[in-house]
Design brief:
The complex is a heterodimer. By secondary structure, chain A is an alpha+beta fold. Chain A has a domain of 298 residues: PurM-like C-terminal domain (Phosphoribosyl-aminoimidazole Synthetase, Chain A, domain 2), CATH 3.90.650. Chain A contains 25 helices and 28 strands. In chain A, the strands form five sheets. Chain A has a seven-stranded mixed sheet. In chain A, α9 runs antiparallel to α12. About 1% of the residues of chain A have low confidence. Chain B is α/β, with parallel strands linked by helices. In chain B, the strands form two sheets. In chain B, strands 2-1-3-4-11-10-9-6-7 form a nine-stranded mixed sheet, with helices on both faces. The radius of gyration of chain B is 16 Å and the shape is globular. Chain B starts with a strand and ends with a helix. The mean pLDDT of chain B is 96. Classes of the chains: A alpha+beta, B alpha/beta. The interface between A and B is medium-sized, with 34 and 31 residues.
Chain lengths: 734, 223
């Protein structure tokens, strides 16, 4: 807490704060909880929101809720757990999953799927070998034990993440419209009930100690270890089933999950959500403790996991407790809702806190200095067009193999095979397809597609365009399954907001994302900001990660990426230019990062998405894969490897540009036999360029007048990298 | 008369809904059974589903084995009730000594979730009657503690007695001794891979797993 913030608190209270009040304000006004450096910018998501009749709850609630038709709604959100995952990879990542799942549960939804976007330092670095296996097994441990299928995600490596790995976790929940629960305390006299695990000293100040500060130059993290929360997914599984049964029985008036800033956050936000007159009287000594030495400040700041706070009518309390007993979930009445407009907390009868709750829930708003980095112009002028490029067939062949075997481009099964993607029997698509696809209704085939994408190289070169390109990629990935994109969530990972250059990156990225969402017609419904991702003054690349959700009217008609049958026409959709700024090729072949990222054309993205959705619904297409890192070459290789069929293609232009350029707004499809003309007409009517490249079939990827690579050789290059790096490192478990 | 197949839910069971779906797909009625009730509700067969019962605390299945419903189940199994334990269910049956051997940590020390090919070794159980011995199926394996172990004497007895239910084909995914993917004893069967995740091509690798459930329904209807 800064001196100014302390002064502000004394003004609000009209006196000096007590220890308990100081603890409460310090965690609630931390960057992680209050969004004080970002709120001024995040308003754009509301101000520039495209009209959408599908939104049932937007930003401000725990997670956005979207109507998907047939009486169903879904809720989804991305959240970061970056700093704890560096300090204690297994528990940091595990509790990241736990936290986002509880957010979804608090909306009244059943959590049904998870995804994760992970970023680490160089793959071969010793510290990556400490952090990555721990993070993956933490996510595996927690997600699998909850019975939530992991339906996809991202994995990227870059030196900028060496001391600051990024662990962004997403959860999807499904509900009926009437199930929506809001985090609001209402009804004076209603009971405040704390459910779940007992409260201990783990994670105290996690929000302020970890997530709102950079790591020091000495790099030692052991001192911060007690600030990492410890997870128990079995308890959370019981909590999920218990809460859903409580909801179904109509026993809950309002509910909030306890995450960052624990009891402090849940109480202030429930009051603030209820309105100005709502208050609460809470007996902190009623909170079940696993460590009897804790006093009011620690109890308020503790981030012990697997806890929820419910508002219950007195008449419903007995039935509420009976349901909790059935699930063996501890439930304790710790207070009552009042009409006083004050949050009052007592400790063995003594009043230890008495604050206006909204003042804690809504912290200060900062307008940090913003300055375009002096080196930005030079960075953008460093055009990759000048780099030596492969020209001959063998050189191009070798370039493709090097991209497929680079850690960023390599097959991710080493990670994804640690995640259960089958549980619940509703996963239609997961890795290696472009988006996860979950069936919501077994009879109608209604489903939901989700993709998460980010590209930190593009964002460093131009944060405005880079954020839009991340959005466009996730939007395109959803469309590639045949679904219609509908809504957006985001996790904005940046360095310190006290650095004007970082604030410039943040301002540009938010502006780009908001403008992009408006142009594509998909509103941001929820999101998360993670600042202070830097060590000893070196910030990570600006890394906005964007999640796009889409609706699929009939998952039986979904498109997947694999070339599974021979004799299908392979068609490239979209326009290709020579665009290599921030490309995978420039990174792998030359270690180069400069120039401008690919141009953004939101009209072209919309047209492409419509063609893919129509092509799927009309039964014209068999496979679809969007183009992104590594361009057409990598996309074709992935299609062949996923489906087991080779392909023979001819390139409509300069081979190097056609193969490795990363122009946006493109996809490659396999057209069903007999549907070629109808599909060509569809593309022409939509104004989407369509170039027939060749056909599927055979046991190799043949690029005419260039090279041929057998599927076996492609597979060896693609699948060998991550096991070779990480197999001999045993996973560390709780 | 529709066969009634019970599916037990323990705290932490995860694949109970999927097992129930498979039972219904096979033409039987799925009857939910609760861990703390000493009541099998007169079902004709029981499935112990996959999951992390009791969070895998102590050992997988070690606590579930003492649940009230298990007291009834052990008696019924010994009296000839067909019982199928899948994954965690298999672990529970071993802990309850209804099946020999034990399941331990995967050799690679990591959770493994992937399609596997298994060969049915015996069609002479109520759960495999719709297959033929030697038939190969594609099922789903998803476990961290799936490596079957047994001492040499037990192994010899299993092999000699035709009690190996199924074996992994190809690379051994978890280090199970003799590539054993499932064992049986009388009408009780345990299988590490999940047949209930292989009943619908839309959400799994195919429909090879349905036979476990149709076998039981056919065996029940004809007894």
């Amino acid at each position: 807490m800064t001196d100014e913030e302390y002064e502000a608190v004394t003004k609000i209270l009209g006196r000096r704060p007590t220890d308990a009040e100081l603890a409460l304000y310090s965690v609630m006004w931390s960057e992680h909880c209050s969004y004080k450096s970002s709120r001024a910018y995040l308003r754009q998501f509301g101000e520039k929101a495209p009209p959408s009749s599908a939104l049932l709850a937007g930003i401000g609630q725990n997670a956005g809720v979207v109507d998907i038709g047939q009486g169903y709604a879904v809720t989804f959100k991305l959240e970061s757990h970056n700093h704890p995952s560096y300090v204690e990879p297994f528990q940091g990542a595990a509790t990241g999953v736990g936290g986002i799942v509880r957010d979804i549960l608090a909306m009244g939804a059943r959590p049904v799927a998870v995804m994760d976007a992970l970023r680490f330092g160089p793959a071969a670095a010793p510290d990556t070998r400490r952090v990555l296996p721990g993070v993956v097994s933490g996510i595996s441990f927690y997600g699998n034990c909850l019975g939530l299928p992991n339906i996809g995600g991202e994995l990227a490596f870059d030196p900028c993440y060496a001391g600051n790995p990024l662990v962004n976790a997403l959860c999807l929940g499904v509900m009926r419209h009437d199930d929506l629960k809001l985090a609001a305390a209402t009804g004076p006299g209603n009971k405040v009930v704390l459910l779940g695990s007992s409260t201990g000293p783990d994670g105290i100040g996690g929000a302020s100690v970890l997530a709102s500060a950079s790591f020091g130059a000495d790099g030692t993290s052991s001192a911060k270890r007690p600030s990492v929360q410890v997870g128990d997914p079995f308890m959370e599984k019981l909590l999920i089933e218990c809460c859903l049964e409580l909801y179904a029985a109509g026993l809950v008036e309002g509910i909030q999950d306890l995450g960052a800033a624990g009891v402090a956050c849940a109480t202030t936000e429930l009051c603030a959500g209820g309105g100005e007159e709502v208050g609460m009287r809470v007996r902190l000594d009623a909170v079940p403790l696993r460590d009897p030495s804790l006093g009011p400040p620690e109890i308020l700041m503790s981030e012990s996991q697997e806890r929820m706070m419910a508002i219950v009518e007195p008449a419903a309390l007995e039935r509420f407790m009976a349901v909790c007993a059935k699930w063996e979930v501890a439930a304790t009445v710790i207070g009552e809702v009042t009409g006083s407009g004050r949050l009052e907390m007592t400790w063995h009868g003594d009043l230890v806190a008495d604050i206006p709750p909204a003042s804690a829930a809504a912290g200060p708003v900062y307008h940090r200095p913003v300055q375009r980095p002096p080196g930005q112009a030079a960075l953008q002028a460093d055009d990759p067009a000048r780099l030596d490029r492969p020209g001959t067939g063998p050189e191009l062949r070798s370039a493709l193999l090097s991209l497929l075997s680079a850690p960023d481009g390599a097959d991710k099964s080493w990670v994804t095979e640690q995640y259960d993607s089958y549980v619940r029997g509703a996963t239609v698509l997961s890795v290696p397809h472009d988006a996860g696809l979950v069936r919501v209704d077994e009879h109608t085939g209604l489903g939901v597609a989700l993709a998460v994408d980010g590209n930190s190289r593009y964002c460093l070169l131009d944060p405005y365009a880079g954020a839009q390109l991340a959005l466009a990629e996730a939007y395109r990935n959803v469309a590639a399954t045949g679904a219609r994109p509908l809504a957006v969530t985001d996790c904005l990972n940046f360095g310190s907001p006290e650095d004007p250059a970082v604030m410039w990156q943040f301002a540009e990225a938010v502006r780009g994302l908001a403008d992009g969402c408006l142009a594509l017609g998909v509103p941001v419904t929820s999101g998360n900001v993670s600042f202070y991702n830097q060590t000893a003054g070196a910030a990570i690349h600006p890394t906005p990660v964007v999640g796009v959700l889409g609706v699929h009217d009939d998952v039986r008609k979904r498109l997947s990426v694999g070339f599974g049958q021979a004799g299908r026409s392979v068609v490239l959709l979209g326009r290709t230019e020579a665009e290599f700024g921030g490309s995978l090729w420039a990174h792998v072949a030359h270690g180069h990062l400069g120039g401008l990222p690919p141009a953004v054309d939101t009209d072209a993205e919309r047209a492409l998405a419509a063609v893919l959705a129509d092509g799927a619904a009309s039964g014209l297409l068999e496979a679809a894969h969007d183009l992104s890192d590594g361009g057409l070459a990598v996309a074709l290789a992935e299609c062949c490897l996923a489906g087991g069929q080779g392909a023979t293609v001819a390139l409509p232009g300069d081979p190097f540009v056609q193969l490795f350029s990363e122009s946006a707004g493109r996809a490659v499809v396999a057209v069903l036999p007999g549907a070629e003309d109808e599909f060509a007409s569809l593309c022409a009517r939509a104004g989407v360029p369509a170039a027939v490249l060749g056909q599927t079939g055979g046991a190799s990827l043949e690029v005419e007048e260039c090279f041929g690579i057998g599927l076996d050789e492609l597979a060896a290059a693609h699948r060998g990298t991550l096991p070779a790096l990480f197999d001999e490192v045993p996973a560390v478990e709780a | 008369m529709t066969a009634r197949v019970g599916v037990i839910t323990f705290p932490g069971s995860l694949d109970d809904q999927d097992a129930a779906r498979a039972v219904r797909c096979a033409g039987a009625q799925a009857v939910p059974l609760w861990h703390s009730e000493r009541d099998l509700r007169g079902v004709d067969a029981v499935v112990l589903p996959g999951g992390f019962s009791y969070g895998d605390y102590l050992r997988c299945g070690a606590i579930a084995r003492f649940a009230p419903v298990m007291a009834e189940l052990v008696l019924a199994a010994r009296a000839g009730l067909p019982v199928l334990g899948i994954c965690n269910g298999f672990q529970i049956l071993c802990e309850a000594h209804l099946l020999p051997g034990a399941l331990t940590r995967n050799r690679g020390l990591r959770f493994v979730s992937r399609e596997v090919c298994v060969r049915i070794e015996t069609a002479a159980t109520p759960w495999t009657g719709d297959y033929t011995a030697g038939q190969e199926l594609t099922l789903v394996l998803k476990s961290g503690e799936g490596a079957y172990v047994a001492d040499p004497a037990t192994l010899s007895a299993l092999e000699a007695g035709g009690q190996v239910l199924a074996r992994y084909v190809g690379a051994n995914p978890n280090g199970s001794v003799d590539a054993i993917a499932g064992v049986c004893s009388g009408t009780v069967a345990g299988l590490m891979p999940h047949p209930e995740h292989a009943i619908d091509s839309l959400t799994g690798p195919g429909e090879d797993g349905l036979g476990f459930f149709t076998s039981a329904v056919r065996a029940l209807v004809t007894t």
